[in-house]
Amino acid sequence: MAWIQLRLNATADTAETISDHLMELGAASVTFLDAQDTPVFEPAPGETRLWGDTDVVGLFDAITEMEPVIAELKTLPELAEQMTYKVEALEDKDWEREWMDSFHPMKFGNRLWICPSWREAPEPDAVNVLLDPGLAFGTGTHPTTALCLTWLDGLDLADKQVVDFGCGSGILAIAAIKLGAQEVIGLDIDPQALTASADNAQRNGIEDKLTVYLPKDQPENLQADVVVANILAGPLRELAPVISGLVKPGGQLALSGLLQEQAEELRAIYGEYFELNPTAIDGDWCRLDGIKR
């Protein structure tokens, strides 16, 4: 399969936001490179540029029309002053294999490891989740997922029912089961996410404890002891009554997928239903969590 690579010069402060926009615009993958080690941008004669320290590289299917992608990127505040980029065709390679080689085991909290299914677990006696995300979001590498995994690791989930709202690859659902949850229900609007979650549950030998549904098919009057929703600020805002209704009185909720500047608005909305803890922060991203009144 042929590919097109779009490389943008950025800074450490803007790279993550640019990466998110590239994924929204259809990039199959996004990687960060040290700009000092990859001098691919040639200044025009007589031009002096102040380079950022990071190159953000998006990989697109070769049939992608790049002009609309570039036009959309030029509207971003992070790129408004000067957008320096390079578009190039790439030779056909096994990009999935290259991505697999860069996905390493990661530890969250005191006992939880997320391990690629094709690698050996560093601590065989720890709580290990074997993961192959397939086409769904969620490897643990993004701060929003990491914040939720750390939160789950700190809970007593023994005999608890958990709902993973927007389950993606199933990483949070499977972690909850491995950490002691009796039953987990995964909800997602994407059928590919349900497939990925079910496959990963089987890979971890806990498929009997995870059930996945499209929202239209979920059980009536569903309520759980613990609910985690790692999606985006917009859906968290719009679906606040739905998500809050999934938590039993006295149950616990964690919300992520939101930027720090979005936290106060979401705190005000969910504060009507929950006693919220201080906001947990990881870089530009954060997590809200609390107990339902």
TrEMBL record:
GO cellular component terms, semicolon-separated: cytosol; ribosome
Superkingdom of this protein's organism: Bacteria
Q: Entry's Pfam families?
A: PrmA
Known catalysed reaction(s)? L-lysyl-[protein] + 3 S-adenosyl-L-methionine = N(6),N(6),N(6)-trimethyl-L-lysyl-[protein] + 3 S-adenosyl-L-homocysteine + 3 H(+)
Q: What is its EC number?
A: 2.1.1.-
The keyword Transmembrane helix appears for this protein: no
Q: Which SUPFAM superfamilies match?
A: S-adenosyl-L-methionine-dependent methyltransferases
InterPro entries tied to this protein: Ribosomal_L11_MeTrfase_PrmA, Ribosomal_PrmA_MeTrfase, SAM-dependent_MTases_sf
**Keyword annotations:** Cytoplasm, Methyltransferase, Ribonucleoprotein, Ribosomal protein, S-adenosyl-L-methionine, Transferase
Instruction: List membrane-spanning regions.
Output: none
Keyword Transferase carried by entry: yes
Residues at which S-adenosyl-L-methionine binds: 145, 166, 188, 230
Question: Can you name one GO molecular function term for this protein?
Answer: protein-lysine N-methyltransferase activity
> What family name appears in the similarity comment?
Belongs to the methyltransferase superfamily. PrmA family.
Stored PANTHER family: ELECTRON TRANSFER FLAVOPROTEIN BETA SUBUNIT LYSINE METHYLTRANSFERASE (PTHR43648)
What exactly does this protein do?
Methylates ribosomal protein L11.
Name the UniProt record assigns to this protein: Ribosomal protein L11 methyltransferase
Name of encoding gene:
prmA
